[in-house]
Amino acid sequence: MIRTAQTAKSFTLEAKGKAAPIIVSSDDWPGVQHAADEFAQDVQRVTGALPTRSAQASDVDAVLVGTMGHSSLIDDLVRSGKLSTAGVAGQWEAGVTEVVENPMPGVKRALVIAGADKRGTIFGLYTLSEQIGVSPWYWWADVPVKTHDALYVKAGRHVMATPAVKYRGIFLNDEAPALTNWAQEKFGGKNSKFYTHVFELLLRLRANYLWPAMWDNAFNEDDPLNPKLADEYGIVMGTSHHEPMIRAQKEWHKHGTGEWDYTTNKDVLTKFWTEGIARNKEYESTITIGMRGDGDMAMSASANTKLLEGIVADQRKIIAEKADPKVKNPQIWALYKEVQEYYEKGMRVPDDVTLLWCDDNWGNNRRLPTAAERKRPGGAGIYYHFDYVGDPRSYKWLNVTPITKVWEQMHLALQYGADRVWIVNVGDLKPMEFPIEFFLTMARDPKLWDKDHLQQYTDAWSAREFGAEHGAEIGELISGYSKLNRRRTPELLEPETYSFTEGHEADRVQAEWAALVKKADAVRTQLPQEYQAAYFELAYYPVKASAVVNDMMFAAGRNHLYAKQGRASANHWADVTRSLFAEDAKLSAEYNGLLDGRWNHMMDQTHLGYYAWFDPPRNIMPAVSQVDVPQTTQLGVYPEGGAGKYMHKPLPEFDSVNRQTRTIDLGLMGTKPVSFTATTSAPWIVLSKMSGDVVSDEAIAVSIDWSKAPKGRSEGSVTITDSTHNATKVMLNANNLAHTRGFVEDAGAVTIDAAQFMENDAASGVRWEVLPDFGETRSGIESFPVLAPSTEKLNEQACVSYEFTLTSAGTRTLETILAPTLPFQPDHGLRFTVGLDHAAAITADMWPKLTDEEWRKAVSDGVRRVSVPLGELAAGAHTMHVCRVDAGVVLERFVIYGEHRPGEYLGPIESAVAKP
Amino acid sequence: MIRTAQTAKSFTLEAKGKAAPIIVSSDDWPGVQHAADEFAQDVQRVTGALPTRSAQASDVDAVLVGTMGHSSLIDDLVRSGKLSTAGVAGQWEAGVTEVVENPMPGVKRALVIAGADKRGTIFGLYTLSEQIGVSPWYWWADVPVKTHDALYVKAGRHVMATPAVKYRGIFLNDEAPALTNWAQEKFGGKNSKFYTHVFELLLRLRANYLWPAMWDNAFNEDDPLNPKLADEYGIVMGTSHHEPMIRAQKEWHKHGTGEWDYTTNKDVLTKFWTEGIARNKEYESTITIGMRGDGDMAMSASANTKLLEGIVADQRKIIAEKADPKVKNPQIWALYKEVQEYYEKGMRVPDDVTLLWCDDNWGNNRRLPTAAERKRPGGAGIYYHFDYVGDPRSYKWLNVTPITKVWEQMHLALQYGADRVWIVNVGDLKPMEFPIEFFLTMARDPKLWDKDHLQQYTDAWSAREFGAEHGAEIGELISGYSKLNRRRTPELLEPETYSFTEGHEADRVQAEWAALVKKADAVRTQLPQEYQAAYFELAYYPVKASAVVNDMMFAAGRNHLYAKQGRASANHWADVTRSLFAEDAKLSAEYNGLLDGRWNHMMDQTHLGYYAWFDPPRNIMPAVSQVDVPQTTQLGVYPEGGAGKYMHKPLPEFDSVNRQTRTIDLGLMGTKPVSFTATTSAPWIVLSKMSGDVVSDEAIAVSIDWSKAPKGRSEGSVTITDSTHNATKVMLNANNLAHTRGFVEDAGAVTIDAAQFMENDAASGVRWEVLPDFGETRSGIESFPVLAPSTEKLNEQACVSYEFTLTSAGTRTLETILAPTLPFQPDHGLRFTVGLDHAAAITADMWPKLTDEEWRKAVSDGVRRVSVPLGELAAGAHTMHVCRVDAGVVLERFVIYGEHRPGEYLGPIESAVAKP
Lengths: 916, 916
Description:
2 copies of one chain form a homodimer. By secondary structure, chain A is of the alpha/beta class. Chain A is 30% helix and 23% strand. The first copy, chain A, folds into 5 domains: 2-160, Chitobiase/beta-hexosaminidase domain 2-like (Chitobiase, domain 2), CATH 3.30.379; 167-448, Alpha-Beta Barrel (TIM Barrel); 470-597, Up-down Bundle (Methane Monooxygenase Hydroxylase, Chain G, domain 1); 635-736, Immunoglobulin-like, CATH 2.60.40; 743-897, Jelly Rolls (Sandwich). In chain A, the strands form 7 sheets. Chain A has an 8-stranded parallel β-sheet. In chain A, strands 27, 29, 32, 34, 35 and 37 form a 6-stranded mixed β-sheet that branches. In chain A, strands 28, 30, 31, 33, 36 and 38 form a 6-stranded antiparallel β-sheet that branches. The first copy, chain A, is globular, with a radius of gyration of 31 Å. The two termini of chain A are 52 Å apart. Chains A, B: It holds the Pfam family Glyco_hydro_115. Chains A, B: GO terms for molecular function: hydrolase activity.
């Protein structure tokens, strides 16, 4: 719509240092006036020319801004037939932006921005702001404004439809120490000087809804201008799920007398709540009803359904008496934690109340409306989390939520009718910029970006902030770090999370981080100076700081393992751990010091050394050990797959399809260097080196020359002899396979990414589809459409199938690795069936029993694991069918294993496929 | 018997630089000749004068040495009526030492040393050696010989009785790296130059039996002089429990072909065994029969009773054919691990075979003979451990077996008839000197030292080695370090073993170590130079090195806790951990360097960083963390009993009987010092300081002025305000009690040492008696006599009773802390009964089910814990009766607790007793 060169009948927003004036009726909403001022400044930011706010005689072009039915300017245009309101008028937050010729005397051409309501107009303005080159994050993330000499608006009419979700907003929560200390330093607290920046951000993101900070904060009392300005700007205020009747928890601590207990202190509570409703009656709000215990705790055991229903009835009486009937404020009942249990046991509120369903605090919806509930006029919403303080460990440092996950869960939510409210806990707001905008964008227009284009969304977002030439690169950084962080949050990461002894897992994961850092460093050197701060905040810091934390854990893990092995280099890895710990602190300080401390304190959050759900008071380095290294000459030999002197066993098997490379690590056990020679028992065993000096750590790569290896299984060995004539013999087995099909077992396990199916058979109008880049590894698959009913009959199920070859007969177990979706419908679980060859299919349920312990493990691991016994299987080829029963099941991987369950956190690398 | 001044008719062994000659018939045993030579040298060591080995014309006094029936000298004396053999002749290893006037022409007075057999004579000589001042450990532990100008033997006859246990010896095992490397350096291996030192040591200790080192050692083949000299010296050789037919495991690895499997390789095995019996047929040996798997592993699952009985029958056939019938070598069947299970399932060997019962490798007898088994002519023996390589973690560094434990278990063994063989695994021999001698002394003459005089034994032993003036002090060091080490072996010790948050347990245990070290340091400065090496080996090193390891764990534990608390001093404790790790290495090096490396390698054993049963290849420091300390001013306040900011709770309760002192720790959370003031809510709360500066860590001691405290329970608080005006309020409760009796509950738990009974009622001829200093804390109690039958009827039970007061009503659990005795009789467990007030007594069994897991926990903890539910109890006074059912139960402590199980590893400190 915006052009920098003139086209036929285009509207000139600015050219040659002169900007078109912006005209708003004086009778329009103050919020519209304010947004028009901001828009004028945006034009100036881009072009250097500040539009005037009233027309001059000399103007032939003008921007006409107004709200239908609330602006004499717009209403005149409509009456005169110059502007059509068709498809817009009366629609919540809808609007039209149109270039109109000769709209009124003295104006030759107008850009008309007309909203069906106040926010319709405001959103029209900020949409244009974004289009001319002002990022919604220009203030909050220092994104430079792209300047232009001239700006033109292409002729035409653009209708902005009503958003899919009515109330779309964020919850500033868990806001200490970072946001709190920052706001204190910059504004003297969370007052209106602070909040107007939040309001403006939300409007630029075309959101309309805010739950204010409430950790020892009282929005309405801390600064009386807060609610007044929110309403003026056009922001609908809510209170958090456990703060009923527009009153902050802090207000109760200040004013309340007696207990926060309706059975014993009803009068005081009634007065307290009545004051809240009366105080804010003129303002657009959502009114939380119901009650939790004080301090966001569950109410006492004696709390019960009848009591809560009575509380709600009494609260509605207060609202009916004290609220302004002109301000149609919805009532919200948040079904958080135990409150959802009351609901499931039968507690109900009137049908006009919006039911706010909540995720499990880890981005998994606990419950979505049933078909019956979808008919309730009050509708339903979702309370979601990008930040959480609680079990199993809080996550409040960096973004750990990939938008692939947000899309999958919020798509489900929308399809199941949760479209009245979307509110997301964003912690300190920074550094959650990226997922915040995606969440709000999806809430506004979910059709804009579907599951197959989420990386394009990320690239486009990055291109908007940093220029098209860096969009794809930075997009990859952003999706990369959030995906890798979600595998295990930095807070949950431990030195032993990834396996050091199986599948080189720790090395592989560390290499993934290193690749991201390399890319991030390269981009950093390329970006101009003015982009450096935004880049550091939005991409570089999260990538680099996450990588440093991961590296620190890897270093500590190596220290632990090498110490057990008696390797001298264990002490080196202790030093590395310490230096990475210092680097982490340096990176946080660098963030806090950006632009002369503009974001000072924003990275005060501790993130290292969690040992329970709460954050540690200080960052704690992972504990490291050291070994006593004698002044001797001694070589340590450590074959892959084992650790320690009593664990000698052959190297994991080699086979001619997977064509593995195995390693034999060498390390010093004394202070003095050693040389070694390596010999093999057969000419088909290939070593990366046959001799050498060991001065620290070395590795010999072992592989097989399959052109020389005998057919079938052969035994062999590698012997390492050191310069003191000590010899270590490492046994190995090589399997030169014939007649394999599909995925071929690799050292006792067949590992298949779910998206790598051989066939995909739709049934009952349902089929499995790939969720690209979803989850911890390659991707996921989910059945669509998600509203399709459960298919319990085998012949009605959509199925994917996989072919694989076992290299030996024996008992096998299938481990399915799934997204940790929760059973969000009360009448059934999350089921799928597994059939092998021609055997009867087995039905598996993701959560036969949803215990706290299993849930904690699943959200910690980022995946749910469900095992299906496959019984005795013959060696050779098999076909596995995996079929859909219930919607919402997302499969990521399959691991079919025998006696030894592979020890990798993510599962083994995918098995190789037999060549046809 | 020995005097340094002449008395009437005393025999002059040496005076004025002239020693009495030592005369042995040339027809006596070579071992006697050898011992006489050694004795002569001992006289020289003491006096400087070397006795001649034949009489000179000028001599009027002579030492006449010989074996009855094997010495013309002695036989002549007997024939001539000069020497009586009454009560001696024909008795195994008995002897007489007597001053005889005019024994023969030319000799005016003789000291006659006459044995009933070879070792009877040898032991007579070495007994005298010890008495004149040559410690059995003069060579093996550098104990200085006490010199004298003159030596006289008091006139009289001294009969040395037959030892209680026939074969008494040690097993050199788990002998790498220490003993192996040392012997390699000093002797070029475990050859006869090495072994003769072992033989001599055993004989000086009046032992007769040896199982040789067998980790890649073959006693009979490594040096053919080994068995020959053993027999000459007088040592009976055995082989370890899994090496049948006098053949070492290493010999099989060298000569064996095919599998170590009788079902498939009978001919080869038969030949192998036949060679063993034939080879050693002239030597005194015990012949192990039966079979275990290769490498001391259990035989395959297909092994069964019938097969093993067949093997034994075939082995006995070989012995009957090949052994020399003159050498009456006993056959031994070791009932180790799984072999005991075969026995219990019915496998039997002929009655003349000695059954060698084995402890659990941790000093607890698994099985003792039943009344029926005690009638077997082959008798029974015990294989015991002072060193072990295996589950749950090896212990092969220092002595961790207090002799109180040895006495208790070996007393049981002897009473139950295990008196044919006592063999103890002593690891590298050093530093097990002290328990080795106790074990062998008890085997020889168990009546010499009873349970009430074990500390006197230790003191006397120390006095012999270091002089009477240091006996008690060093005795205390030796019993002290072994007792504290047995609480938790150094290998099993972890930074969190002892509680940092309850009962100041870590501080108290650390103080116990510090007190020992202080004493050890003081003695070290007092001892003359010539005693320094022996003192370092026998007392100083084990005390100091154990204390350093404990301190290191405490430092690491503080580092972990303080890091979690965000205390800056966490970093200091990391430094302390590192410096103690270095000190440990320095102490080992000091041992290895003693006397110019005389014991080089003897302290090569790693002992830090165990993570499985086997020893780590290098010592590994306990992992430590560090915290990121900001440059701020912040005080951390840490009340006793809780850790971390979300665990605030009142201080543990105060009461007027226990009169506790509680602490509030203060620490810096930033780099800058803080000052504080402390205030109390009531005048009866007493603080050790009311203000001060915190520059590192501080503690405020909180106590109650009971003269001012109100009666009953009162609430109060202490408020700490720092110089930045942050205030922390710590709540407390004080209970000013009235009407208490017995032990009074201390903050929710009554803790009673078992020996502190109020009444002790014998019944059925049985009564509980105290085992002084036994176990982990004060002592233990056990019922005696131990052969008394089980008393299942309540009115036939011996009982002890205890009175205690609960300060509140509620459910209580009794935790009994017991020695980890195993159920050593097959027909019953280890039961006792607990009766409270007038309620029916409950019968408890120490091992309702003896699982591997529970056993591992018990031997790791050094105690077995058995809980008895006591149900709902009223506040006020109660009486508990604990009564005996089965012999062998040793009670150490009782902890009666309510909702919170006290977290101390050893249990809380003993509760105070109400004043009458």
